[in-house]
Automatic annotation (TrEMBL):
Name the record gives this protein: Predicted protein
Record-stated family: Belongs to the TCP10 family.
Centromere protein J C-terminal domain span: 58-80
UniProt source species: Micromonas pusilla (strain CCMP1545) (Picoplanktonic green alga)
Alphabetical list of PANTHER family matching this protein: SPINDLE ASSEMBLY ABNORMAL 4, T COMPLEX PROTEIN 10
InterPro entries in alphabetical order: CENPJ_C_dom, Tcp10_C_sf, TCP10L/CENPJ
Amino acid sequence: MEGPISTVYFTNGDVKRSHPGGRVEYYYKEVDTWHTTHPGGAEVYHFPSGQTEAHGLDGYKEILFPDGLLRRVYPDGREEDQPTR
């Protein structure tokens, strides 16, 4: 069993969930977006458009667009697109 999840509800409508393993999920009500920070520091964003972004500590990013396009952005600024469908 993982243990209890701590949930904080803010007056502006934001929500913060802290999991025992160190994962933190934060919901930004104003922009309807979830931001998850994993114990190792990687971050994942879920936008209302269906776009998802994963950000690594080294500056590497993966962006998955609703149309199925996967964009990789490397720390040196290089970008690479790959269809996933």
